[in-house]
Amino acid sequence: MSPLLDVRDLRVSFHTEDGVVHAVDGVSYSVDTGRTLGIVGESGSGKTVSSLTTLGLTRSRSTTISGEILFEGEDLNTMSADRLRRIRGNEITMIFQDPLSSLHPFYKVGWQLVEAMRTHRSIPKAAARERAAELLDLVGIPDPRRRVDQFPHEFSGGMRQRAMIAMALANEPKLLIADEPTTALDVTVQAQILALLDDLQRRLGMAIIIITHDLGVVAETADEIAVMYAGRIVERGTAEQIFNSPQHPYTWGLLQSIPRLNTPRGQELVPISGRPPSLINRPSGCFFHPRCPYVREAHKRIDPRLEAVEGDPGHEVACLLEQEVRSRIWRGLQQGRTPAELAALAQPEAVSQTGQAPSLAEGPSA
Amino acid sequence: MVRLSRTALAPLALAACTIAVAACGSSNNKTTSGSRSSTPAGLSLSGLASTKPNPSAQHMGGTLNVISAEGWEHLDPQASYFQIDYLVVYATQTPLYTFTPTSDTPQPLLASGPPQVSPDGKTVTVHIKSGWKFSPPVNRVVTSKDVAWAFERMFNANVQNGYASGYFPIVGASQSGTTDKPISGISTPDATTIVFHLTKPFGETMAKALTLPGTAAMPAGSTVAADKSSPSKLDSNPTTQTFTGPYMIKSYSPGRQLVLVRNPNWSRSLDGIRPAYADKIVWNAGADPAVAARQTLDSTNLLMADGPPSPELKLAYQTKKSQLSIAPLGAYYAALNTTVPPFNNVNLRRAVLAIENREAYLLARGGQLVGEVATHFIYPEVPGFQQAGGFKGFGEDFLASPTGNKTVACKYMKLAGYPNCKYTGGYGQYGSVLIVGANTDPGPQEMQVVQSGLQQLGFKTTIKAVPQQTMYSKFCGYVKAHVNVCPTAGWIEDFPDPYAALFVPFSGEAIVPINNSNWAVLNDPVVNHLIDQGAGISDLTQRYQVFAQADKRIVDDAAAIPEVWANNALVEGSKVHGVLDPWNDDWNLSFSSPS
Amino acid sequence: MVRYIIRRLLWVIVLLIVVSFVTFTIFYLLPSADPAVLRAGRAPNPALIAHIRHVLGLDRPFYVQYWRYIKAVILHFDFGYSYQFSQPVKSLILSRLPATISLTVGAVVIWVSVGVTAGAVSAIRRRSFLDRFTMIGSLVAISAPSYWLGLISLLLFSKDIGKFHIFDGANTYVGLTANPGRWFGSLILPWLVLAASLAAFYARLLRSNLIEAMSEDYIRTARAKGLRERRVIWRHGVRAAITPVVTALGIDIGFLLGGAVLVETVFNIPGVGRLAYDGIQNSDLPIIQGTVLFGAFFIVIANLVVDIAYAFLDPRVRYT
Q1: CA distance C123 to C118
Q2: Which of B124, B142, B324, C245 is the most buried (most CB within 10 A)?
Q3: Which structural domains are found in chain C, ordered by start?
Q4: Which residues of C touch B67 (CB under 8 A)?
């Protein structure tokens, strides 16, 4: 079965006064009906831009877009603006991070839902209003008939996000894109929203893309996960593959920086050092090399491609380190060693001299 | 004094010499033929509009359209005292005598002949024409009792007449009551005769004052209810008046519009003076002066009742001369307070007159088009001007140079006791010479001219610029304020006679604590006597001689710095015939015609 | 909300009393002209002046004069008599009000429609030629003094003194009921002149607010819903950006109802503004007081209306 959404080699560049911003640089992913794809990365990784581009919301005179965005076989990238508008909010919908600012403060919630409906189908106002109340009920908002006539500021944070979801579901979309749906919410509410999305997917059978910077968010809900960095996908696989045997140092960093309940007290979170790179002047060679604790000289010159991981079909990574080296480092990290300590394992001298990586007990070799 | 329209008193500030005028800047004195048509020296008056009556070219009928920036103050004839108001009042009412556009001696209008003044000057007898009718609904014939009633109204304080006590010193008349009560000094022996008994030998001058609108007859007894309000309801609601002139006030919207229509009961043959060409007169007030001036110049049929602002005046002079008229208006001078230090010393005053650059005043007001540098206080349009020295003046050394002469000034400083030509004496309550003037052009410039002259003589000076009305009512016109110099003083005569030009501004008898117009507070017994004496003389040559002496004495007293003899400009449409009343320096609506 | 309105209305009354007192005091204390003297003409007769002062009540102490005035206003709605015209101030002002209202209403319609449209177009097509042209043009229009603009428009477009004989010139105003055709024709130029600088101001105001609104998240949501761009701009963007415009509009209307002096003067429209100007020129205290109070009343009421409207426009605002 061909995927519902198939993004192939998408490139999006913004021409600004400061230079060309390569927001998305050759990204490919796909999602099937009824499945959930999680796109994970820091701000500036290009995860949001790629989704907005799917909906055609980045089109402008100063934007260059190339590649294919196939939705049910049709390329959205070359579609006319008018046709795309008919798909937007209808077959593909999107919800955003901050539900308070994403809902228009001056219109009642019910009115905004009705607007979403009446844009794409002719349905009398009374019927639309009725359906709006049903939708609010569907997403778990109590007393929906009263809530329909209220304004966004009269809802709590979690309820607002539910209302946004209701609005996104109004036209029974085939694909729902959720951009940081829980970031602005309390932790407990986060869990409720994620559970809601999961539940709705099972009931309505739609595909979902969840975009987030927090791997923890997609741990339970995503079927597939793509990790993005500096406009590229650096690792891709099923959720199990990513969590059980992550391959990319960036992914390790993401996993390590998730606070866990079972972490020993006093043990510090291990953040990824440095900051996301400029998308105008990107680092040479491997984009991640300035921040990678395991960088080698060659990495500053060679740009890695996404390659399959041995022995793990469907799992891909773009990293120049040997697989064995990666496995060792990951094991070390899981045991609680710091990246600094493990950096030596990555050095070529350590490998070639003895034919195998130095034992952990020795530490960095002289 | 007739209150000028605001635009006349805040005059034409043209840049000097921007108009191509011959001999600009010099003051070669042309002699004049007749006091009225005196030509300001150096100005080319050819090509300007003719403002004299032209019966062969003027046509009967049509509507006269008048436009003005100013509105009307008092349309009650017994209260009316402002230049703009006179246009209406003289067209709708009939005083005993009137000056006409072509004569500067009083012509009998309601009167049937010249007034008879007794030899002692204390009795004046006037006969009125028979058969003159009031307008509908009154309709009846005017009698002497109606004329007496007019005087009784003038002395009713509610009516607020501004000149009655000054010009009509009638036995038994006083402005302290608020009813129209009979005046013992006025008797009406028969229906067409009125006799006035005066308290002093003032007959000759009063004869001229009988041209004032207050003498217009009103139906006796008819205004009692209206006169209970102050001002009278005849003033606030002038359509309720009874009219004796060629026109009646049909509608009135205060400050906005006035419509005059013909008075069906007026008889042209009985009148004998006013032709009354137009059938209807529509007057719109409250216009912006610049816009109104342009509208007038571009129109065929508009008359603008106040003067155009300087850019439009220039435009008219350069492109539409045939629609522009320029005529002498009055005099401007800088009064020096003769009662408080430092100018209570006549030699100091003469020194000031000597040092002042009087041409600078003319330039401040706009140069040649605006007038002449003044040399004394009877000005060109007043009869008796020639006898008072004409344009040259009396030839005092301290006025010989129009631009000022330090040597002469120092001579008088020495005479005053300051041999170093610098003032080192004391001052009055302000600790310096206080100069108060209007804060609109050219007030500030004139004050600076005064100041620079004074400073050359070592005087400490303070300048205070205030709105014009404030200057009149709270400073220069308020004796107790003891202002030292009032440089924006101005005067026009109430009727063409040297008495009217000199009495109020310079006679000690005219000084009043509030609303004083003798800003120099001059009280020279010689001046007072000469003015009084002249007032009683009927022979014109002698009369003018005596007033000339008074004028000379005032100049010798150096009571004020003579600044400018000013002109007034008016514009009209291209087809309308505007006829001017020289003594009022504004249009005469009974003589002007739409075509 | 009702309690709020009542409270505000009570403050209106207090404010108007304060305004009248301050006006009275200023007139009394500052050395303006003496009205009795002005009325008397330059007459050398102190008895007459004293009489006029008595008639006008000027010989009473300051507080007595004020008390009589304010009592008449509150109890009888009587604003006294004009010194100059000797007519009741109330009837003078009421007779001038229609002209001022005519001028205001027409100008409002023009400047709001032009300003909002121009501002919206400028905001949407930012940095286009149209945007730059509109912004520079509006800067000129705002900077131009309305008196000068009035004169220029007359000199260019009026039928009597203009280069192109298109519109009725100055002094052609008639009441609406008298002659609707002429009423309309006489007001075209004044409306345009009055609206010019205000339209420019509103265009700039809306432009900056709309640019800000269009960068808000709810615009992105609206687009993501698949709405037509025009609907996004007007129903979502302008709707959000219009609130400060409505606020400014209310206050501007209130202000103009007090009389647009300069425009009324240039075009000789018999409005309240011109009346106030004449009053000041003639030291006519009752007129000055009356027009100031009317003007203050309109402004204060306008403020109240705008505040209430704000609550309807922005549901997040609540009054208690």
Answers
A1: 8
A2: B142
A3: 89-313 (1.10.3720.10)
A4: 171
